[in-house]
């Protein structure tokens, strides 16, 4: 059983003993072949086996070497079981990662589709906003033109009213001046009329005085006024 375990490790029973040097009188070509064989074995077994062989060569008896190999085999078996457990754990993680990857790819596809729809809606909204902006600008220009026309018409009407007011002011000033002149003329006429009346009364009075009939007439006038 122990020998079968040794062969499972890929180690030949001949490797347990340290190779001895060439015997006296042996052919030198045999030593070269042995060295080449050792190099081939080292390249095949690898560094781990070489290190194991070096460790075994430090032991003195085959029993110690066999015990060391059994211990190494038990360690390797335990390590192999641990590796299998880790492999199962990693396989589960890999399956979970693959599942998450598929889910993420699905979500990514949905996100791309949603982004495409949003971009299409944004382009449509931009076109709609551009159309509204152009319509608003056109309405603003038309409203500005109407405001300019209304302002011009109002200014024209205001200028006409201002001109008419100025004409009325001139006419009123002229009428006022004419009224003043007429008032002065009327005043002069009244003064002239009063002066003529005074002259006329004075003439009558003088005539009466001259004719000596003034006293009886004056007495008669006073008596008449009393009654």
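^ structure tokens above, recovered residues below v
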């Amino acid at each position: 059983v122990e020998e079968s375990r040794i062969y499972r490790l890929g180690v030949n029973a001949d490797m347990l003993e340290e190779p001895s040097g060439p015997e006296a009188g042996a052919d030198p070509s045999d030593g070269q072949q042995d060295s080449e064989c050792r190099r081939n074995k080292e390249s095949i077994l690898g560094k781990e086996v070489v290190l194991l062989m070096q460790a075994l060569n430090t032991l003195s008896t085959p029993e110690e070497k066999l015990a060391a190999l059994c211990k190494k085999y038990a360690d390797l078996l335990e390590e192999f079981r641990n590796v299998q457990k880790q492999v199962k754990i990693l396989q589960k993680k890999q399956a979970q990662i693959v599942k998450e990857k598929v889910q993420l790819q699905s979500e990514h596809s949905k996100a791309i589709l949603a982004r495409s729809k949003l971009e299409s809606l944004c382009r449509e909204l931009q076109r709609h906003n551009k159309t509204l902006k152009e319509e608003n600008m056109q309405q603003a220009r038309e409203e500005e033109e109407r405001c300019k026309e209304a302002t011009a018409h109002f200014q024209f009407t205001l200028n006409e009213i201002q001109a008419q007011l100025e004409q009325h002011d001139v006419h009123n000033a002229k009428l006022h001046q004419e009224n003043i002149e007429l008032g002065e003329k009327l005043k002069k006429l009244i003064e002239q009329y009063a002066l003529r009346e005074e002259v006329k009364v004075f003439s009558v009075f003088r005539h009466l005085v001259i004719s000596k009939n003034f006293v009886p007439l004056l007495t008669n006038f006073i008596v008449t006024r009393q009654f």
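Residues 186 and 192 are 10 Å apart (CA to CA).
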